Amino acid sequence: MKILVVEDEKDLLESIVTYLKTENYVCDTAADYKTARQKVESFDYDCILLDVTLPDGNGLRLLEELKVEKKTDGVIIISARNSVDDRIRGLNTGADDYLVKPFHLSELNARIAAVIRRRRFEGNKVIVLNELTIDLDARTILIHNKNVDLTRKEYDLLLYLAYNKNRVLSKNAIAEHLSDNEVEIFDNFDVIYTHMKNLKRKLHGAGCKDYIKSIYGMGYKLEIEV
Amino acid sequence: MKLLNKTIRPFLVYSLTVLLITIPILYFVVQSVLLEAVDKSLRIQLREIRSNVDAINSEQELAAWSKLDKDIVLEPIDHPSKDSIYTAYRFTGEHHKTESEPYREISGSIKFAGKLYNLLICSSLVESDDLLGSILTVQVIFVLLLMGGLLWINRKISQKAWKPFYNALNNMQQYELNKNTNLPFQESDTDEFNELNQSVRHLHNRNYQIYIQQKEFTENASHEMQTPLAIFQSKLELLMQTSPLSESQATIIGDLENANQRLIRLNKSLLLLSKIENNQYPETESVDVNSSIKKIIAQYQLHAEARGIRIQTSFRTNLNIRANTTLVEILVSNLISNAIRHNNEEKQVFINIEEGQLIVKNTGTHSALSEEKMFHRFQKGTNSDNGDSIGLGLAIAKKICEMYSFKIEYKFSDDCHEFTVTF
Fold it and tell me: Based on the number of CB atoms within 10 Å of its own CB, is B177 exposed (0-12), middle (13-18) or buried (19 or more)?
């Protein structure tokens, strides 16, 4: 799977690439509009992460050109601007998603996975983690091929952990993800505790191994060897 | 006071003063002129009588002559008297029996046939007074006409001359910095107004430049702050993935991340506040407050449930207002998140919509808060367990209310903290 990261901030670019590489993505990078354009013309990407403010042009222009050339690359805009107008404009120009800086890398990773899944027509409609199967279309999970009933939030939580498997997810990242990134979240993590407790109980009850580990002082991790 | 009235008023005051002073002066001047004329004719009469008295032959004739003219009184005296002239009031006994009439009289002694007589000649002043009255009336009418005409002409000229000024004023009143880019001014044939227009245009251009710069600054600040915050955040997350990590290291990383998240929220709130202050949410539309509230409650449901807080709603009416949807949602969201955050073991939140009002009520600390301070920036609740509050929520709410002239009030009653927004 090939991803192009267009971001002029070197440190942020490095962080993104480092995080995504362990996910077995092939990452290309571009620090300015010109490079990004050349790369987009020469290769096809499964997903492009696009910063709006580039030193030599507006990232949205690249998006417009992609549209003109009828390229089907998935695009996630990463912008420091959090205004409704920009968001609407970005999505109207054909972006698949819009993420406001600063973001959690785990959130970015989950969004990329979702975009790639939506863009691909064949296969990958399920995530299989040993005895645990997540059906992305039906939004259900199976354990040992048996349906387990989860609430919407519990499903979201599990999917988020699964997209970022074997990574430590901070409580802040999880809380923000569960709150749909819309509301101001509270420092208090009661929200996660309740849902995490219920999710773990349900998984355990259906005979799933205890993959979700609590990481002291930081957050949670879905630890699994597939 | 209106400008036109202001310019006319001194004229009016001056004219009236002059009028009030000149009327008595005129009266006395005309009166003395008339009196002088009467006196002159009386003296001539006396002189002529003295020089022609010898034409009378006998005392009987003299008595007859004096009786014929009722304006003449002749009395015999012993000593000669000096000539004197004076005004006297007398009852004539003819038409006005009760009223006295003014008379001018001259008295002097004359000699006739070796005997001394006092001769009194009088002349009625009634005609002179009538004349005086007529002159004054004409004068007053004339002055009033003159004054009225002058005022009217002045007003007309002023109105015409100040028209470009009022046009410019009207334009400026309707002008909004963030909407139009140029002020439409009327060219005028008055130099001063053209200069004024030019100055205002210049001022406006400068303000507009500053406004644009400020807007750019806000955007730049946003970008500049968020990039290092984003880098810091991403590096922390990468650090979390490294192993081995001891428990104490993990705790430190976790704390760093919490602090950074707060910094991120703080930055977002500050930006929002400055954006509202810079009027960067100019679009207004009809907002259905009821559905906005329902949407926000749904977003906070998760947090409320996690804290065991019950949100009760009572929508008595359907509230529609004209405002910016985003801002209304921020306003509602800040009030509701505060009600959840600053709650106590009673865990109650009430959201009511009444006619033109939104009321958000919650249980919490058992004493009233300082209404004066709470809407200021960085005023945090006194509860130590509310450490996640950044103290900008109510400042933002207040700013939004100010922008649309909504009224936001705080009340502590029935052990509940109550915020009322009157639209």
Answer: middle
Q: Contact, B360 vs B312, CB < 8 A?
A: no
What is the least distance, in Å, from the CA of A110 to any CA of chain B? 14
Does B223 contact A at CB distance below 8 Å? yes
Q: Model ipTM?
A: 0.89
Which of B:309-348 have CB within 8 Å of A? 326, 333, 337, 340-341
Q: Report the residue from B223, B234, B247 with minimal CB separation from A80.
A: B223
Whole-angstrom Cα distance, residue B229 to residue A6? 18
CA distances from B353 to B343, B348, B423 (A): 21, 17, 11
Q: How many Å from the N-terminal Cα to the C-terminal Cα in chain B?
A: 33
* pLDDT of B108 over the 90 cut: no
Residue showing tokens 């906005």: B292
Contacts with B227 from chain A: Cβ below 8 Å: 9, 12, 80, 101
Omega of the bond leading into A102 within 30 degrees of 0 (cis): yes
Residue in A51, A168, A185, A215 to test binding to B, most B beta-carbons within 10 Å: A168
Write out pLDDT tens, residues B211-239: 778 767 766 776 678 889 999 999 999 99
Q: Which of residues 160-189 of B touch A (CB under 8 A)?
A: none
Give which of B263, B315, B255, B320 is closest to B289, Cα–Cα. B320
Q: What is the tens place of the pLDDT at every residue in A115-174?
A: 988 877 655 688 889 999 999 888 999 999 999 999 998 999 999 999 999 999 999 999
Residue A168: closest CA among B247, B248, B229, B242: B242
Would you call A29 an interface residue with chain B, using a CB distance cutoff of 8 Å? Answer: no
d(CA B131, CA B139) in angstroms, rounded, equals 12
Interface residue A187 vs chain B (CB under 8 A): yes
Q: Which residue of A has its CA nearest to B385?
A: A188
- How far CA B223 is from CA of A53, A106, A202, B212, B226, in Å, comes to 9, 21, 43, 16, 5
Concatenated DSSP letters of A99-147: EESS--HHHHHHHHHHHHHHH--SS--EEEETTEEEETTTTEEEETTEE
CA-based max dimension of chain B: 163
Closest partner CB to B247 (pick from A80, A81, A217): A217
Containing B361, the helix (H) or strand (E) segment is: strand B357-363
DSSP 3-state assignment of B25? helix
Residue with tokens 């879905």: A222
Of A106, A178, A179, the CB nearest to B237: A106
List the helix and strand counts (H, then E) for chain A: 8, 14
pLDDT tens column, B19-59: 888 888 888 898 899 889 989 999 998 888 888 887 887 87
Interface test with A, best of B239, B301, B302 (most A CBs within 10 A): B302
DSSP B57-89: -SHHHHHHHHHH-TTEEEEE-SS----EEEEEE
Give the chain A residue whose CA is nearest to the CA of B235: A15
Which long-range CB contacts under 8 A does B165-170 form with residues at least 24 apart?
B165/B3, B165/B193, B165/B196, B168/B193, B168/B196, B168/B197, B168/B200
Say yes or no for a CB contact (<8 Å) between A19 and B238. Answer: yes
